[in-house]
Each structure stands twice: as C-alpha cells, then as structure tokens.
Amino acid sequence: MATYLRIWFLALLILLIGAVALNYWVDPYGLYRPYSEGGWKPNGAAQGELVKPYLVLKHSPRTLILGNSRAEVGFDPEDTAWPESAQPIYNLALPGTGTRVARRLFEHVLAAHPPKTIVLGVDFMDFLVSPDVSKWEPEIIHRLLITPDGQINNKRWLQMMLDGAITLASLNAVLHSIDTVRMHGRAEVAHLTATGFNPMHDYLQIARNEGYFNLFRQRDIENMRVYQKRPKNLFSRGTHTSPAFEDVTAILDAAHAHGIQVKVVIYPYHAHLLEIFRITNCWDIFEDWKRELTLRVATHSHDQATLWDFSGYHRYARETVPPVGDKQSVVPDYWEAGHFKKELGHQILARLSGAGEADFGVALTPENINAHLLAIRQDSVKYRLERSAEISRLEELVQ
Fold first, then answer.
1. CB neighbours of 54 closer than 8 A, spacing ≥ 6?
2. Across the strands, what pairs with 305?
3. How are the residues of the chain apportioned to helix, strand and coil, as percentages rounded to the nearest 5?
4. Is 338 left (phi over 0), alpha (psi -120 to 50) or beta?
5. E-strand spans in 3-151?
6. Which of 6, 46, 115, 322 is close enough to 329 for a disulfide, judged by CB 3.0 to 4.6 Å?
7. pLDDT tens digits for 13-49?
8. Count of domains for the chain
9. What domain range includes position 362?
10. pTM (predicted TM-score)
11. Is residue 389 situated within a structural domain?
12. Is 161 a domain residue?
C-alpha cells in the first residue's frame, strides 16, 4: 500500500511539475512572457483583469490609457501617432468596467511609478445611475498595491499566490496552453498584445462571415434595450454629484498633485448610437453629462487637464453601414456603433498629440460648450434628413 501511495504521489508531482512548466513556457495569458514570441496570446484577451494589474507595473509606463473596452480596442500603444516622448505606453483599459475601476487602477500605478500622461476614456452609460446608487468596490482591488482607503494592500500576496496557481497550476491554464499551441500563427483569433491592446483580430472573421450589417444590427438592438432601461439621471438623490463623477474628480485631483497631464476623451460613437441616445430620451442628459464633465475638468488648468469630445456627427460617425446580405463591404473605422477601430483611434491620438484633423474633436471649455452642443444638434437634424430610411430601421427597434 505504501509503495502504491508513493508511486501515485510521484506521478501526481510529475504531472504538476509538467503542467507548471508547460503553462509557464506557453504562458497562455501573457503574464510571464518568457520567450521572444510572447506577444501572441489568443487567450489573454479575456483575462485583462487577471494580468493587466501585474503587467502595467513591469512596463512602468510614461503614458497610461484608462477606460473600458472602447479604449482597449481603439487606442494602440504602438500607434505611430504617439510622440516619442510618450513612450513607454500601456493600455490599462478593461472591458465592462467604469470609472471606479479606472480610478483604482490609476491609484495602483501611482503607488509604484507615476506616469507623465493619462488618456482617460469616459463613457456616457457609466454615468446613468439610480438616484439611490451606492458606492461599491470591484473585485480587482485585491490585486492592487493600494486599498480603497489609500493604505498599502498587505494582503495582496495572497491574491498573487492564487493568481499564480490559476495561471500555472490549474487545469484551465493547461487547456488554454494547449489551445494556444494549437492556434499558433492563426491571424484571426482573439489577442492581447504585450502593451495591453486588443486588436480585435477575431472580429475580422466574424465580420467576413456575418457582414457588418449584422454586427451593427445586433449591437443596435442591445444598445436600444440597455438605454431604454437605463436610469435617466446623472446624480445621486439630493446631490449634484454621483460616484462616477467623484471618481473622475479624484483622478483629476490626484493627477494634479503629481504633476500628471490628463486628457479626458469622450468616445467617437457612431451615429447609430447617437441616434439611440435620442430615441431613448437620453439626448438632453447626454448634453448635461458633457456640461458637467466640462465644469469638473475646467477646475484645473488647460495645460494640465483637457476634455476632448469626439462624439459628434463627423464624417467618421456617419460611415455607411452596408445593407443586409452584403458581406463584402467594410466599415472602415467601426466594428459596430459603440466600438471604433484602431484606425479611428489613430486619428484621435494624432489630435491629442497636436496634429490630426482640425475639424475632428473639440477641446471643451465652459466658454464653448453650449455652441458646440448646438452645432451637434444641427448636424443631427441633417443626418436624419439624409438617412431617413436608416433612422426608421433604428426606431423600429424600440418595439
């Protein structure tokens, strides 16, 4: 019996060592990157919350990108629009997250190596709150250097051990390692680069198989449902603030205290999504949101903090969606109405860097905000006149 147990234990130990060695070398999530081709990580795209809090500390970025999936897939740290002085750059944006996660991640980086510049993407949806919304903290805080109350996270080592077991010794990691080897070299699979960017390679095949009409239609339906149900207010009951606005203010204040430049970016929503804001009675609130952001950013000097609005009916937002059944035509700058491609991200980054197209993107101030909002309203009227059939199809989704 003792011999059998020793053999069983030895076999188990060999399997465990083999699994750890395999997972470390293949590194399916891109956490360790032990070899030169470590930038190819198809299983890393879904593991941002697991790997990015660790990887950003290894990069010690001079420029930090914060936001949700729109920023993760739109702003490439390796884009040529970045000036040399901005390097190194890390994309710390996380899909499905809001301002609270961005704030905690910024505090995390600030505790280790303060960046020089932040590009902070803000999303209108994250600010539509219930009047009785309560504060909460994301699970990701266990991986961060700093606790929500500003203290050193003395329990972080426990999370690091758990994450080490997940990425090196778990069955899922073994399966993902095998999957990574099996898919190695394939172009159109999910991917997360070493600098935290998701190039959406998997969407290339989806777009080719289903066509851009279906990509837009599916997301338009989802957005219509979400914004119909979303609360129609920006502030907590009895106040002129909310947790989301407080998070933005906290980021601005902390950046100011450390001499960090902040570029707040309102995403370049496609006209379909802008029209959904209007159809679901969110347009007035959308404008109030911009006004409030403008006032909060304006409390800091223009050289230190700037709010850029890329959400108008510009030529990119008006890109035509191919008709149903057309699987050949490509929408150049959008995957669907909410997520822009890195090609449009390049134009935004060029504008933030002082170059780019002068008529794309506006730096908002208390002095120009109302005129800017009026101009967008006028452009929206023109768009509806030009695309009446397209608008009718959107309005049918209300049912």
1. 31, 143, 163
2. 262
3. 50, 10, 40
4. alpha
5. 63-66, 89-91, 117-122
6. 322
7. 787 788 788 888 888 888 887 665 555 677 888 889 9
8. 1
9. 62-154+188-396
10. 0.94
11. yes
12. no
